[in-house]
Amino acid sequence: MKVRTIVFGLLGIGLVGLIAYRINKNSQGAGPQSQKSSQSPVKISGMVLKPRNFADQLSLSGSLEANEQVDVRSEVPGIVENIYFKEGAKVSQGQELFKVNDIELKAQLSKVQTAKKLAAENERRAKLLLEKQAISQEEYDIASADYQSSQAESELISAQLSKTSVRAPFSGTIGLRNISKGTYVTPTTVVAKLVNTEQLKLTFAIPEKYVSRMKINSTLTFTTSDTKRPYTAKIYAIEPEVDVTTRTLKMRAVVDNSGGDLYPGMFVNVNFPLEIVPDALMVPTEALIPIQNGKEIFVVREGKAKAVEVKTGSRTSKDVRVLSGLQPGDTILTYGIMALDNGTPVDVTLD
């Protein structure tokens, strides 16, 4: 009897302890929940999404090249006798740039012309003798060949003599000269650069997925690094194949540079219009949060922040186009979002 009483007493004590333990755990679990429910809303900035027109553009980098450019050289070696151009000046096609001394070539030409006259006379006499059958056909052929050889040599020296006067192959701007009067020049000596900058070539490459949108005579705009002024260009040539290494297609556009504001070699930012979207949803760049498989944006649902995964498209310097995940009229959170969690109460100030 005594043993049974002891057993029942121990069971009662254990039951009371278990009830007390459960009550204590429930009270501890309810504390944070009640604290969370009583959490004050976070003040944060936001905006209501409204559809708007968006000009979708392809942004690329390119470089300017001269329409025509050449290193001015002398085709014949010799001493520079005169220089007729000023550095940085405009020159016209056919204008004489400098003169190489031609005394030796003139002397050679005089010698050859004398030999040519003698050969011509010998050929005339041989022809008369051949008609009288006083000489053989072979002897006449030798005299005729001597005359023709002298004539060719005379023409060769005359051509070399004409090359001592170096002229501009096209109109343009002559650069800084690398010679002085009295310098000995050879065909490898670069005297100066001649560049035609009235028109420039803009060379750039586009990703292959946009190839079908590019057409000859399509117009594009570009800016330079030193100014935000937009310039226009027109595509005139497209490479016939895609570069298999970069998966891009190279093309060229022509730029009017009659004002002289642009220079060959400049780096430019090219903007090519793709399409006009009349109802695009644009969000500030800072509203996007990178996640493992994409991006997400916090929106307001019943006074609380909710993370929504979105798919994005083209972007500008400040905004990004959202393709899916949001609807017009949604209130998105823009500033101070990194400290938010799903379900955090928010007090939104609309921009």
TrEMBL record:
GO terms for molecular function: efflux transmembrane transporter activity. SUPFAM superfamilies: HlyD-like secretion proteins. Residues 202-272 form the CusB-like beta-barrel domain. Residues 68-189 form the Multidrug resistance protein MdtA-like barrel-sandwich hybrid domain. It holds the Pfam family Beta-barrel_RND_2. Gene3D superfamilies: 2.40.30.170, 2.40.420.20, 2.40.50.100, Helix hairpin bin (1.10.287.470). GO terms for cellular component: efflux pump complex. Residues 280-348 form the YknX-like C-terminal permuted SH3-like domain. Belongs to the membrane fusion protein (MFP) (TC 8.A.1) family. This is Membrane fusion protein, multidrug efflux system.
